[in-house]
Model the fold of this input.
Amino acid sequence: MSEEEDVFRIVIDPKDHRDLPRTVITDCPSDLMNKTGSWRTLRPIVDKDKCIKCGICWKFCPDVSIHVKEEGAEVDYDFCKGCGICAKECPVDAIEMKKEEDYV
Amino acid sequence: MSEMKIVSGNYAAAYGSKLSRAEVVAAYPITPQTEVVEKIAQLVAEGEMDAEFIKVESEHSAMAASIAASNAGARAFTATSAHGLALMHELLMWASGARLPVVMTNINRAMGPPWSVWADHHDTLAQKGTGQLQFFCENNQEVLDSVIMAYKICEDEEIMLPAMIVEDAFILSHTKEPVEIYDQELVDDFLPSYDPDYKLDVDQPLGFGSLGMPDWYMDFRYKIFEAMEKVPEKVEEVNQEFKEVFGRDPGGLIEEYKTDGVDVLIVTMGSISSTSKDVIDELREEGHNIGLARLRTFRPFPVEKFRELIKGVNVVGVLDRNYTFGHGGDAAREIKDAIYGHHEPIVKDYIVGLGGRDLTPKILKNIMEDAIALQDKGLDKEIEWVDLKVNQKRWRR
Done:
């Protein structure tokens, strides 16, 4: 699926303005299709041995992109923009921000 | 049965929204618009009007709530004035960008400072680029008529844009005139209920107002341009239909008063038009070939209609009850823009009546005689500030 179709799925494959609805209207939930994780330049890496599963990172994440599971905090890299708030707030320094370019 | 009532311009707007069966009204009071809100609140409270009345904390919220209601498929109405309208600015553009036919009335009031509550068109004209259709009313009946017509125009699937019905502070808003309150059934036949193809619906969720990347944003703007280009024809069409159903002609894009083959054309907007027409009659009796064009639809600007109107005219005298900072008044500037490259008469811009300064028949006659004189002497100055303290003797003589 092309990027355009992601944004305007209500019309499949618009060629020009004549195919568009009168204003921007998207299928719901449109945000799930717009993977903002691609904007990231820094990647949070969780050290699960250090993680105490307190949930502070989950509470502070502005993009709802970190979830605390059985084995510790887990980052949703499809949507994490790499702001680093989780790493800053972690009381046991279990999250480290690393260069994204080392992972792609 | 239709009924004649003696009502203010504010009440006329309120009754207009009631007859249009507005379903959601979100508004915040501001002088001189307060009565519109009070009257609607009363009509809703007494069960005469079937609408949700939302008390909001600001004009910004009033338009935001109206937008949300319209997005959910409800016919939405609001009202404001001057500084309240300025506070709405962001949402005025949201309404047009989201293609929502919210109709509002704005009571034209001067912007401060100096603090003022009196008539002046600056507030409305400062919003001319927001995608709102703008209709300037001459009397209270036209306020009521225009609210009903605006919904019909704006909800057309080819248009889908918001509109402002504007009336002059106090001169219309607080002055009572006989206004025909039409039979509800007649209005219902003229204005069917609002049923947009896309709307907020929990059973069929859609996302509204999301991101438009650079490769698509411009194409959405072009769609608004296309809609705007269709408005003039739609205004005339709805005006004609209104005339047939209600027996009254609000004037369409431009109301022409004795304009056939005139040498001098006076252009007015809003309530000063009535007094000006009397003065036109007087001057015609004195043998002057002069007529008046009342600019009723300012947005979109009736470019084609103006080009037709000025054919054969020597002088166009534009009465601008506004000074939109920068050059002169807005109407004169738009007229020059419209006629550029076509027949080009002398256009003189008269800045008049700012902040509610009175415009007497005597002043208006002096302005028109000044315009007539330009035929022989040519344009003396492009922008004339009329009835300043420094030149009052000349204009009041």
Observations:
- Residues 1-34 of chain A form one domain.
- Helices of chain A lie at 3-7, 56-60, 85-89.
- Chain A touches chain B through 20 residues (CB under 8 Å).
